[in-house]
């Protein structure tokens, strides 16, 4: 075989290796770029989740504060130890007409979290504890829903008693002295028992809501910690 017709195997092998290496490098760069973009999406979603949780936390604070005011009012009108009607503040007196059912329920809204979970990005969150907290959030809300239902049921019973005894504020004769109306409600044993159940249920709901608020704070802190000082 003539010398110039020999196949340069070394050069062929080198060129083949370069081609393979180039292909592998291209795949690696594509994978790196995709991973970087995915990390960016996860970071953006987590920022949205943190902002959402902070807004919901403020809403929870408002509900807890309002319910504490309602509980205090009920305990004034329906004292646990003294059946006699105590002296009421002008603020309490103004409240009785339309606000005897004026408790507050927190309306949960977590669209950003749902987008994170439904977009299959939750598993990409690098912090395992944060992943568990976000993934278990619906379970936290299910517990709160049970408490909310207890408040609703107790309030419905109280409202039904007010109507059946003719003492619901919208059914009362305007000529009936206000303090007489209050005393009739406050000294009725069945009504007092129903209001006790309602106040206890509302107090439990408030406690559960406060616990949820604390969990929300922990989630926000976890996200902020991941973001670093600039996050």
Give the number of domains: 1
Mean pLDDT score: 77
Number of helices: 7
Described by strand count, sense and barrel closure, the largest sheet is: none
Oligomer: single chain
- Proportion of residues in β-strands: under 5%
Radius of gyration from CA coordinates: 32 Å
**Which spans of ≥5 residues are poorly predicted at pLDDT below 50?**
none
Report the strand count: 0
Name the overall outline: rod-shaped
Element string (H = helix, E = strand): HHHHHHH
Structural class: mainly alpha
Distance between the termini: 71 Å
The level of helicity is over 70%
Task: Write a structural description.
With 231 residues, the protein is mostly helical. The chain has one domain. The protein is built from 7 helices and no strands. The protein has helices at residues 9-77, 90-99, 111-118, 128-135, 137-164, 178-186, 189-227. Helix 1 (9-77) packs antiparallel against helix 3 (111-118) and helix 1 (9-77) runs antiparallel to helix 7 (189-227). The radius of gyration is 32 Å and the shape is rod-shaped. The termini are far apart. The mean pLDDT is 77.
